Structures are given as C-alpha cells and as structure tokens.
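FORM 7B: Structural annotation worksheet

SECTION A. Query
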Amino acid sequence: MDKGAIPADAKVFSVTNRSVLAIAVPMTLAYLTTPLLGLVDTAVVGQFGDAALLGGLAAGALAFDVVFTTFNFLRSGTTGLVAQAFGRGDALEEQAVFWRAVLIAVVAGVVLAALSPLIAVGGRWFMDAGPRVSDAMGVYIRIRLLAAPFSLINYAILGYVLGRGEGGLGLILQLVLNGTNIALCFLLGLELGWGVSGVAWATVTGELLAMLLGLAIVVRRFRSTPPLPRQRLLDMGAFLRMLSLNRDIMIRSFSLLAAFALFTRQGAQFGTVTLAANAVLMNFFLVAGYFLDGFATAAEQLAGRAVGARAEQPFRRAVRLTLFWGLGLAAAATLVLLMAGTNLIAVVTTAQEVRAVADTYLPWAAFTALSGVLAFQMDGVFIGATWSRDMRNMMLLSFLAFAAALITLAPAFGNHGLWAALHVFLLVRGLSLLTILRLRMQTAFN
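SECTION B. Predicted structure
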C-alpha cells in the first residue's frame, strides 16, 4: 500500500508536505511520460523530414484529444467521488464508483471505436489543411480510436487509484502504458518504417496491456473485501449524481480542447511550417502542464478527502501546500525551457525551417507553466470537492476570453498574438476559480 493510502479517519487527518509529495511526486513522474510519449511520436515522424507528416500527426493527435479529453471525467470524476468516499470511510461506495465508471467507459468506448471513420472525416473538415496533412491525420485517427474502450477503462482505473491517494500504483500503471507505447513507437514507426500508422498502433497496444494489468490489480483487491450489493452499484441517486458531475466535467474538458483546437487551427492558417513548429512547442507546454498535474492530482485527492470528512483545516492546508509546490515547479520548468529549449527543438525535428520558426516562439511556450499553475491547481481543488458547476462555468468564461483575445491579437500580431491569447486563457481560468473559492468553502464546511 502507498504512503498516500492510509486508513481513512472520518473526521481528522493531517495534510503535510510529505502527504502532498507522496501523491504528487510519483504522479508527476507518471504524467511526464505522456508528453514524453508525444515528444517521441513527434521525433519519430520528424525523422522522415516531412513537415506534412509532422503536421498530420499533430492534427490527428488533436482530433483524438478532442474526443478523449472530453471523456476525461472518467478519471477526474472518479477521483473526486472515490476520495470523498475514502474520507468518509465508505469502502463499498469506493467500489461502486469504480464499477459505475467502468460501465460508462465500456459503452462510450465501443461507440467511439465504431464512429472512428466519421470522426476522421470531421477532423479533416475542421482542420482544413493540405491534402497530405489530411491523409496522415485520417490514418492516425482511424487506427488510434480502436483503443477507445481500453483507454476509457484505463481512465476509470487511474481515477480509482488516485482517489485513494495511491500515487505509486498510479505511476506503475502509467509507466506500463506509456513505456510500452514509446518502445513500440521506435520499433513500428521508425525501425519498420510504418511512420504515422506505426505510432498509432503502438498506442493501441500500450492501452490494452495497461488495462489488463490495472483490472487484474483492482479486481484482486476487491476479492478481499465484502461483495458489493447490486442495488448499491445501481443506486439511481448515486448514478444521477455521477452523471451530473461527469456532464459538467465533460463540458469543461470539451471547452478546454476546443480552445486548443482553435489554437492549432489558427496555426494551420499561418502555414504548414508554423503548424509544425507550434506542434513541437505545444509538446513543451504539455511537459510543463503534466509537471503541474502531479500537484493538481494531490489537490484532488486531499481536497476531496477533506470534503468527505468535513475537515476544513486539512482542506485549507491542502490548497496552500499544493499551490506552493506548484509555483516552485512552474518556475523551474520555465527556466529549463528557456535555457534548453533550442536544443530540445533540434532533437525533436530535423526540418530546418521548422526549427527556425519554433526557436522564434520558444519564450511564449516556456512561460505557459507560470501562466497556468493556478489554473491547474484550482482545477484539482474543484474536481476533488466535486464543485463541478463552478468549474464548468469558469471554463466557459475563460473560453470566451480566449476567443476574444484570439480574434483581437492573432490578426494584429500573427503567431505571437496566437500564443498571447493562450496565456490569457490560462490566467483567466485560474483567477476566476480563485475568486469563488472562499464562498464554496463556507458552504461546504459550515
């Protein structure tokens, strides 16, 4: 059992630097394997020296993320509900939340896999890129969506694990998923010369293996506990609460991905080379973001557990400590990208024109960590507390602010304006949630 997974006390528990780091450090390492995978994907395809293939991979990954991040509620919603059940000491509800999430994942995953040809066509229409970019994007989407059921079940598994604060186990599962994926990317994409299709098949295989391992671990654990009554699993009140929470998180996630989709689409209008350069830099943004996600995950579990136990002081301390550590890591990530970003760009792509454009806009990407740290941390707090309506509303407000900045700045300043609009989006997300935190705390603990 991880240090984070201590027996629940229904009223009092202590939040310390150690308890924050016990969740955040392993999950930071785990999350960093995801953008590392993105860098590997981009580097593998980039070795072919074809900007169209690189742009097609970026566009295909975006279309995939638009679909799958919309279903990220299966991870984050499960984390919040399990953490609150853990805080109350309700082991049966922890199991029930997990299996409800798995049921949703299976149904949604099968539907997504069946709709993959239509999603590929929709992606081509939305991106409105060149023919070769569109062809590469279509190949990537059709193959990768075959993993939809496996991916969504993995979301549910990770949500359960993190809801109990078991960061070490979460790290193991993510290492299996992304480690297998990275190894197969080199084998299939580069060594066998499959290119974009090899990268996609590597993802399908990694998702399948991680799902099998995760289910084996969780099911074995449940066998040592009292059986879950069917009426508890199918409790309509709990199902409706989960669906309401998931709906709000889905709207929030879709708004987030819509902003990134508009960012990528606007970059495509500036030309294939700019699209490819922004794709490289967005991977750096994701690296910084996943750095921060480890502490956002700690905020989810600790805030959710505190709300479940109705423990105000641990909640306040969780907010303070996760923000403190998040700011420190954001500053470190910004410095690393400013100092080493040019060398990293050269590793990712061999195309000289892409390197030159990416170097120009590198500082914008480097400072996204500092602009976004409060947004990531506040998201974690509100997800754990299951204050999903506020999170949804503030995300919609932030999207409107991003759209206004995009319309204003991109025509006037080109790609510089596009990156400035992204910073506006990140800042508004964090500050808007912070302004209503105090009111929600009064409601939750009084």
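SECTION C. Observations
Residues 272-309 form the longest helix (38 residues). Confidence is low (pLDDT under 50) at residues 1-10.

SECTION D. Sign-off
Analyst initials: ____
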